[in-house]
Amino acid sequence: MKLFYYFTAVCLWLLSLQLTAQQQDTIPKKSYTTQYLGTTAAPKIDGKLSDEAWSLVDWATQYTEQEPDNGNPPTEETKFKILYDDKNLYVGFRCYDRDPDGIEKRLSRRDGFAGDWVELNLDSYYDLRTAFSFTITAAGVKGDEFVTNNGEDWDGSWDPVWYVRTNTDDEGWTAELRIPLSQLRFSKSPDQTWGIQSTRRYFRQEERSVWQPLPLNAPGWVSEFGQLKGLKNLKPQKQLELQPYVLAGLETYQKEPGNPYQDGRDTRLVGGLDGKIGITNDLTVDFTINPDFGQVEADPSAIALDGFQIFFQERRPFFIENKNIFDYRFSTSQSGNTFGSDNLFYSRRIGRSPQGNADPHDNEFVDQPDVTTILGAAKFSGKTKDGWSVGVLESTTAEERAQLSDLETDREVIVEPLTNYFVSRVQKDFNDRNSFIGGIFTATNRNLTSNLEFLHRSAYSGGLDFTHQWKNRMWYAKGNVVFSQVNGTEEAISRTQTSIAHLFNRVDADYLDFDETRTSLMGTGGNLQFGKASGDWRFEAGTTWRSPQLELNDIGFQRQADDIRYYGWVGYQPNKVLKNLRRYGINSSYVAAFDFGGHLNRLSTRANGWVNFKNNWSSNAGFNYTPVNFSNFALRGGPRLQMAPSLSYWYNINSDNRKKMRFWVGYSGSVGAENAFSSYSISANVSYQPTNALRLSFSPSYSINRDRLQYVTNVSVGAETRYINAEINQKTLNMSTRVDYIIKPNLSIQYWGQPFISRGVYSNFKHVTNSIADRFTDRFHQFGEEEISLVGDSYEVTEGEGTSGLSYSFGQPDFAFVQWRSNLVVRWEYIPGSELFLVWSQDISQAGDFNEGLFRGLERNILDQQPRNIFLIKATYRFRR
User: What is the tens place of the pLDDT at every residue in 695-730?
Assistant: First the structure.
């Protein structure tokens, strides 16, 4: 604990020196005044800027270099004009270039941001935190993102309908945009001011220039925008968009003789509807009925030996769009190691794999659904001119049944109940948009049947959060508090108490009360932090906690409970850098973790540095030292286990990403004291772009994990429990391959494939005898050859001699998991907002032979197997008014 206070004191001392030496620069806000078209004909969107309408307004000029030489004049000039009428915003860009033949016109899918481009950001809410971003490349490719958290998050899933054309001439290149006002959100004020920023990428120099200057170490992005004025009497836009879809699918796979559910071929024809209704200019309702996400890329393969769940990113469009409104990650920090992925709302819970099992009788075949059907979902979201952000999400998933048959009788078993999910989020800005307070509430309610009473009948969570900023957002203090309550049968709540996230049944946890008669469980958590967000020196310090009873995993994501952490972080990132560098930064952090019994479980400190060279190569390196590390979870209900002090390290290097051939290589490792464990991993990415339309990418990864105290199982032997561990030698190999062929900006072919194999072999079995002994070898008894033997697929153990000896057995834990996943997608946006998808997916997932090498395992289990093939044709059409 003293180290934490010393670390925080040093941070404050450094910052006091910085404040006395330098004050935050104040850069005047620029403004641009637009003009209503009135009776003048609207510009024709052809990219040439030749229409008479453009003469109504002046050019916005004098861009300033942002990177690499902040504050200097840019290599080439850029300027823009803006007009508007009752329905649209019109934007024209002129990007000068003394060598028009050198303009890079690389093709990509939407949001690819390849080659030369220019961008417009509009803070139409004028809340200094959120913005709508429109990017257009010299090749005519569109990019659009919704910017939140003052520029910390850019959501590329936002796909509004807008129109653009580009043109190249002797002076450089031009772009002409038409943005329907229905795609933006703004207030009803008769005379409005919006925030505005424009950025240009000059590809040859990898240079960024901006219209509104700001330092590299500014406290944010949106808050530093200039102003767009002249917007008068904007008319409310009654937005209505309907996007029905129809999908035809064919699935082929290995036929299983005699199994009525595995005849080698399945077909389906389904339809659904997505929609958007504008309630007001700034509040909308999004809904989906029977959604399909067949064109969404599969999750990457992964194996977790620590028993905790793996976090996967959301990929489904309905849940990605406007996800920032419902985001409530309650323990993020600059220092890391604070469970930053934990969130009160984790949309992957909606439509999850069924949680029940069919439990077939002898000679029965089973057809178990892979996912839960989403019957429908709706979102009400937006932000009012008074600074109220509102979000409400409601979704219902179907009751799922597994089909069973012994060829004479058929039956059904419910494996997932009818479930309703509800999320509401509200936040209020005040103090000139420098302070925010908000809250969230979630609810999960299930219609349980008798065979599913191990699930929670209902689960509720909520939280309150605040942020306060001062001194031009240089300083901040923010925090939150959360709660949870889960209700269910005694079986359900006992299951929660003994799950790996809680382990109330730990043998040495005298401060926890495991009660088998409970029918509900309530817990709390939260995070408090303060720091400095701008200037060359920055810092952050805080604390986060999760009570033992906190449980969020019905609709949220939470790795573990029973944890209190103190953390600190300090970083240095100068606005002006050295002669041969574009940018660089260094930082250091500290974390101390306790449980609610007062035990110090972890001390760690980290240092990291990164640099971007003038030639646009970049590199990153760092280390993390953990002198104290105890785990309450490693023995899965056994006593607290002392882990070895460790040193982990990493290094990576990136080549110039402008080149046709570019690469990234990263190496990381970790070693434990007394040779307790070691792990090494090397990853790479190599991309080659032979033409502007074609890009090939390969991402191999190979890792080795050796741990002399890897958990295997717990075995009850009379009144005793044996905590069985072993030495594991695990090797994992995978390689993702991507091919992007962009025929034109609205027609593309994309392929992704990933072979994956992980093989783990266990040896030197042992049982834990003194879990917190100082010496590593004093923590366990390793079985001798005379004590343990492999019989079939089980290990037989005999301790001692004669009738007084103990005999027991456990399964052989060796494993090999092999997987092949691929996705080929042809996407054609035949009119703006309406798409046609052709999809071919493949999947092989099975256990391999752990006695084989990795490459032999890939050959036998992938190349020699028939994959599951899925063919889809999906068409959507967007109706707008």
Answer: 999 999 999 999 999 999 999 998 889 999 999 999
Q: Which two tokens stand for residue 125?
A: 């809410």
| C-alpha–C-alpha distance, residues 276 and 278, integer Å | 7
Helix (H, G, I), strand (E, B) or coil at 504: coil
Q: What are phi and psi of 559, to 5 degrees?
A: -80, -45
Give the residue from 466, 314, 469 showing the smallest Cα distance to 393.
314
If we measure between CA atoms, which residue out of 335, 439, 421, 328 comes closest to residue 379? Answer: 421
Phi and psi torsions of 314, nearest 5°: -75, 135
| Mean confidence (pLDDT) of the chain | 91
CATH number of the structural domain 2-232: 2.60.40.1190
Cross-strand partners of 828: 747, 836
Query: CA 535 → CA 18, 64, 216, 218, distances in Å?
Result: 9, 19, 9, 7
Angstrom distance (rounded) from CA 808 to CA 798: 7
Return the CATH number of 307-611+621-633, one of 2.60.120, 2.30.130, 2.40.160, 2.30.30. Answer: 2.40.160
Q: Residue 648's closest CA among 610, 621, 674?
A: 621
Q: Mapping DSSP to helix (H, G, I), strand (E, B) and coil, where does residue 59 land?
A: coil
Contact 16, 198 (CB under 8 A): no
The beta strands (E) that lie in 632-693 are given as: 641-642, 646-654, 661-672, 677-688
User: Are 477 and 468 within 8 A, CB to CB?
Assistant: yes
Residue 62: band (very low, low, confident or very high) from pLDDT cuts 50, 70, 90: very high
How distant, in Å, are the alpha carbons of 251, 367, 602, 731 from that of 867?
10, 18, 45, 24
Angle at 337 between CA 667 and CA 311, to 5 degrees: 80
Q: What is the rounded end-to-end Cα distance, in angstroms, of the chain?
A: 61
Nearest to 212 by CA among 59, 70, 64: 64
Say if CB 193 and CB 179 are below 8 A apart. Answer: no
SS3 620: strand
- 805 alpha carbon, distance to own chain's centre: 52
Write out pLDDT tens, residues 735-777: 999 999 999 989 999 999 999 999 999 999 999 999 999 999 9
How far apart are alpha carbons 233 and 408 in whole angstroms? 73
Q: What burial letters (b/e) apply to 338-371, b meaning 16+ CB within 10 Å?
A: bbbebbbbbbbbbbeebebebebeeeebbebeee
Residue 822 backbone dihedrals phi, psi, to 5 degrees: -150, 160
Exposure letters 495-525 (e unless 16+ CB within 10 A, then b): bbbbbbbbbbebeebeebeeeeebeebebeb
Query: What pairing do the DSSP bridges indicate for beta strands 641-642 and 283-289?
Result: unpaired
Same fold yes or no, 2-232 and 307-611+621-633: no
Residue 857: its H or E element: helix 854-858
Task: Locate 702 and state its tokens.
Answer: 């190979």
Give the pLDDT score at 804: 59
Determine which helix (DSSP H) or strand (DSSP E) holds 460, and give its type and residue range: strand 458-470
Tokens representing 672?
A: 């434990």
Phi, psi (degrees; rounded to nearest 5) at 737: -125, 135
Name the residue ranges covered by the structural domains of the chain.
2-232, 307-611+621-633
Sign for the pseudo-dihedral over CA of 424, 428, 433, 436: negative
Give yes or no for a cis peptide into 244 (omega within 30° of 0): no
Q: What is the token pair recorded at 597? A: 């019994």
CA 835/CA 876 separation, integer angstroms: 5
Q: Is the pLDDT of residue 377 over 60?
A: yes
